[in-house]
Write a structure and sequence with these properties.
This protein is α/β, with parallel strands linked by helices. It contains 16 helices and 10 strands.
Amino acid sequence: MTKRNLVPLLLLFVFAFTTGCGPWETVQTTAPSQAAEAVPSPTPTGVSTPAPTPEPDPIAQQVAALSTEEKVGQLLVAGIEGTSPGDDARWAIREARAGGIILFGRNVASAGQLAQLNSDLKALNSAAGNALLFLCVDEEGGMVSRMPPEVADLPSAYDFIRSGGDPAARGAALAAECAAFGFNVDFAPSLDVWSNPQNTVIGRRAFGTDAQTVTEAGTACTYAMMNAGVIPVVKHFPGHGDTLTDSHVGLPVVEKGREALLENELAPFRAAIDGGAPAVMVAHILMTQLDPQRPASLSPAVVTGLLREELGFDGVVFTDDLTMGAVSQTYGMGEAAVLAVEAGCDMALVCHRSDNLKAARSALLEAVDSGRISMERLDESVYRILALKAAYGLSDGPVVAPDVAALNREIEAVLP
């Protein structure tokens, strides 16, 4: 099942555990000289040489050891309430066994509190005996930031680039912010091309108004985050920059055909994927020329056909939040989660209300039990998720409150 985008993850996992190198350090290899080449020993006549025993795949072994309930839990990213773990957080981790938790401004009061919250979530997850936890955040800088008030601001991507900022330095700063508080997944950067000036949901969150600018700046930012050890999730595939409707409240419609999309909206995503981007978020947008019925996040034509098969992406695919109006106005929460997995997504974001998380989990379990989602299909997503967690060296260790003054100096050093 390994394709070109999963290969870097598995290689990184192997490097980390066989060479002692960190996930982004370069491993140097030198071909042996001719004089040093080993001469094969002759095989006696009539004696066959046994085939070498293949090395066991640790990720496959980990998948096989999980129960169906644990596997389904890995497909869910849950939003929680409060600034400390409440009943909803405990249920998401202990009962739903969620693969990830996402925090918002409602969960953040101060630097010390945020570090303690993430530390407590990791401790809950460890005590439950779950697979390691994605701690997720939307940290783009500017218009979309979840950092505590003590942390210095980064300008929006558009203003940063227009002022001459270095996108790689921006990526490193975003990763530093996330890592300081224990986040290992950042739903950033936005690779949308802001080609419609009336589009306010993206606007200055984009790096630019043309595909070339977004491609160059967006990929540089993405790779810098990867090199810093934080998982970037490029978004909002297949492109939210030429829409009028805000998908938080309604379903945007894009009438462009495949060729037009490839030239503009898809160009930054193709470049990021070719460069090894580990994760993609799919938007709730109706791409009428690709699938006239379902939004991209629930569409096999978009997720499996375009993203996986045509663009060759085999990393982890996240949905945008399934509680957003673009989906919730048409689909029930449970059906939306099942359709997303059927489309080819790996992880469903359920960012608001514990009852939505319960509905998504129940529907996924029922779909697996009935055979609507096969065990092979379920294992495919769980394998990708666990491979990504292993490649980035996630841990359940405590989060130490950061030196905010030092973090601010690092952020301010990259400001244009």
